[in-house]
Amino acid sequence: MALDTRAAAARVLAQVLGGKSLNQALPPALEKVAPRDRGLLQQLCYGSLRQAPQLQALLDQLLTKPLRDKDRDVLGLLLCGLYQLEDTRIPDHAAVSATVAATRALKKPWAKGLANAVLRRFLRERESLLANLDAASAAAHPPWFFQAIHRQWPRHADRIIAANNNQPPMTLRVNSSRVGRDNYLRDLNEAGIKASAGTISADAIYLQSPMDVAELPGFEDGLVSVQDEAAQLAALLLAAEPDERVLDACAAPGGKSCHILERQPRLGELVAMDVDPERLIRVEQNLERLQLQASVVVGDAAGPPEQLAKNSFDCILVDAPCSASGVIRRHPDVKLLRREQDIAGFGEQQQGILAGLWPLLKPGGRLLYATCSLLDGENTEVVQQFLAATPDARLAAQPPYAGETTSVGCQLLPDPGGPDGLFYSLLEKT
Ligand SMILES: C[S@@+](CC[C@H](N)C(=O)[O-])C[C@H]1O[C@@H](n2cnc3c(N)ncnc32)[C@H](O)[C@@H]1O
Q: pTM (2 decimals)?
């Protein structure tokens, strides 16, 4: 029998509260609920996590004592209940009764009274409970991250926070080797799909509403892919030339690799590497759908495999593992999982990756360093430190950057209805 949707959401949230990523916790849960409830389950999980810092601060006021770790599912259910009352159009009485009823599916009948009391008190005292929140909780951000955004991007903080708290747009990348953007926009228009052109990437199209990719004209045939507009800047900045050898060193699931190949059909070779063999399967699938060719290699960028010879690549893309602080709206679990002290660890890992890859670049070659982070500790500081330690590395002259200019590159900021928050710095070997 299918699992109750709110109980399923509560269990997903409990796993994230216990340290698992949403990408790990959600897919098995989607299989357990009725197909018609999958959209609601997804909305409850994403929405509760997007609002979690605020909902947790409300719960702190509503609970007389904290719940035990073994009752994280009840905590998840209460967060999900508050989310419905605060941020959805589900009528209050329906949200309360469905959430209270889910305690049975969780096999925690003792929690029925608690859920009922907490949610009803929230409805009675909503105004005063919300008025008690500090600025970070009211903005549904962990305090350290709220402060970091204000410190680093004071003029843009409100917009970044608004973007982080909302669903991202669905953005497409037209396969420019097969179809022009204007022609594809016409195809969409004829299919009754409302869309508009992006302004940063010549290949980007914004859909007015998200939809199933299978219903996009030519998707299965490889005419188009789903990719954020800021992510499309990578291939444009790298601007690979005919016959060049390119290494995409952190390639999975392959969005940027495929774009590089679409943009330069006469490339010498593209090597798509990733440390995670499971994730490389997605690269193979994307290459196949888009009818593109690359050499797919499992390897650690910090200590690349010997088959990748020194001085053998004209271009290297390093889309480094990072905090994902620029794509929180797509990965809202980051609000709960990431800690301030993680940033230094990412910085060290990124330094190791840059140092490991640099010898593979030919003299005169270029390396594009990218992250989906907004934080200096993973961006400007990493590049500055690398430049100081690497005598034959320097900043490339005048790349066609977009967004905010920084001392070593550019930062796209997450924008409601616009791009994600990505950082780029283009280096060259002397
Ligand atoms: C931001 S994602 C890359 C997204 C990809 N470039 C795209 O556009 O589809 C970062 C990737 O780095 C990989 N990774 C993490 N550490 C790595 C390492 N030491 N060497 C190679 N890949 C690594 C992860 O497995 C992950 O797939």
A: 0.96
